[in-house]
């Protein structure tokens, strides 16, 4: 009788031990699958912060350049002066062009995507796509935060808060950022980025127009 009880107890202990081992493996598996997702989100966050810092550093230089150029230089009469002005502006835009591509790469956009939409991967219009994506992403993140904060603050206070980045993007870039915000929520960042690239590629702007647009975005953001 005692031997039977001992065997039963050992059997139950073995079953419990197997269950604990299986639970442990399942928990470890879930933790491993969550970790890459957290790392990806962190990488996206860092990429956006780095790009925003680059925009803040570069925009004042473009604003100064636009202010220093005389009207005849902005609308030059000769082809040679036009080429010189464009070359000067592209030189100032270069850090933003490269920074935009680095930021987009973190969201799955590669050289082929830029080639497909712009014809080459160094088109200055890429910068405008970067600003639009930054505005859409910031607005989307802020909207999520506002939805959460609305549970704790009054509706009047929540309504008073405005998204300055979004307003300035719409004003300066002349793009429908709202579609990109919706797409961020529905299809994810990569599809939203592709949509923005496609829309920006349709705009007819040379280096001067792009520099003025970036400068206007900066001036809008600096307004109180």
What are the key terms here?
mainly alpha, 224 residues, 10 helices
From the alpha carbons, calculate the radius of gyration and give it in angstroms.
26 Å
Estimated helix fraction: over 70%
Number of strands: 0
Structural class assignment:
mainly alpha
Give the tally of structural domains. Answer: 1
Q: Which range does the strand content fall in?
A: under 5%
- Averaged pLDDT: 74
Ends apart, CA distance between termini? 87 Å
Shape designation: globular
H and E order: HHHHHHHHHH
Q: Spans with pLDDT under 50 lasting ≥5 residues?
A: 24-28, 144-161
Largest sheet: none
The DSSP helix count reads 10
Structural description of this entry:
This protein has 224 residues and is mainly alpha-helical. It has one domain (40-222). Helix content is 83%, strand content 0%. The chain has 10 helices and no strands. The longest helix has 67 residues, at 2-68. Residues 24-28 and 144-161 have low confidence and may be disordered.
Describe the secondary-structure layout:
Elements (H helix, E strand, L loop, with lengths): L1 H67 L2 H4 L4 H27 L5 H8 L7 H24 L5 H6 L3 H10 L3 H10 L2 H13 L5 H16 L2
Helix pairs in contact: 1-3, 1-10, 3-5, 4-9, 5-7, 5-8, 5-9, 7-10, 8-9
